[in-house]
Structures are given as structure tokens and as C-alpha cells.
# Entry
Amino acid sequence: MAFLKCVLSFFLLTSSLGVAQQYSPPKGTPTVALNAAALPTSFANVTNPQDPTAVLQIHQTLGLYPFVIDGKQFDRLDLVFHENVWANVTMLGVFQSLSALEAGLKSFLAAVTSQHAITTQLIQIHEKGTTARSASYYTGTYLGTGSFTNQSLISWGTYEDNWVKNLTTGQWRIIERTLTFAGPSSGNGAIFGA
# Structure
């Protein structure tokens, strides 16, 4: 029920603004993530006709994210996230701005080489075409460096994202992200402290 209230308040707020980039994300309250069994029901409307251009733009923007972070181009996260992003990255904490998210990811990935894969996706464009939401499976593979060379860690989970469209540029950006792990990671977590 709390999740539905959050989604409804997000939709009503962004719909009433008229200019999607003015949306102010929630501060300090984690978004309630759905479990994998609830995702098909929650996204049942994705089988209805949607704006294919918007779906493709969001799909492409999601695909850009792994290349940005794996290439350690953290200053380019603005290609994926809104400047006022609110992100609950389970093992790193809650970030309430793009600059905070950049710093958190940069610190977390500093000692490793990484390769992220975003696979199965559900994308739902909301009725007025200025907001959307998506759920994506991801796998992160992290390779140790220095004294941790030849050691690795693999994690997997789901990104649940809320999106806003910039009405001036037509570009979509993530305004809220919640990362939920599918289970325990496999490998040596000490590689992050190399």
C-alpha cells in the first residue's frame, strides 16, 4: 500500500507541474521496492500501446549507464540522471543529488574494474507522456586490482526507476532509483578496499 501511495503521489505531483524537470524527489524516505513476483502485475500495462520513441529513448539511456560507470566517467552521469535525483543504492545508502550519487559511485568503484549488464526491462510511459517508470535486471561483475588481482565479486538485482522528460530538450532522465539485490553477492567483497 505504501508503494502505491508513493507512485500515486509521484504521478500526481509530476502531472500537475506541467514542466517535468521541476519535480522535487522525496528526501530521506526510501522508495518501497517491489519483489520480483510483484513486478509482472505492477507493470501489466506495458503490453498496451505506448509511445515507441519514449520507450526507445529510455531503453537507450538505461543502456548508457553501464558504459558511463564502467568507464569511470562519473561526470557523465548527467546523461542518465536528473540533477535532483534521489537514489537508494542498497549497499551505499541514499543519495539526494546527482553530485552525491557521482561521489558515492566514484568512491565505491575506485579500487575495482567493473562490468555492469542491464538485461530484462519493463518500461511504462505514463498517460501524459512526461513521466515514466522502469524496472531492469542487472548483473555487476567486479574485478579486483593490486593485491586482489584475479579475485572478483558478482552481484545481481533490480533497478526500479522513475523518469521525467525535459520538455525543452525531450530527453528522459532518472529522477528516482531504487536498487534491490536478488540475493547475496558471490565472491570476495574485500576487493573494494584494495
Remarks:
- Residues 1-30 have pLDDT under 50 and may be disordered.
- The beta strands are 81-89, 93-95, 112-125, 131-144, 152-165, 172-181, 186-187.
- The radius of gyration is 17 Å.
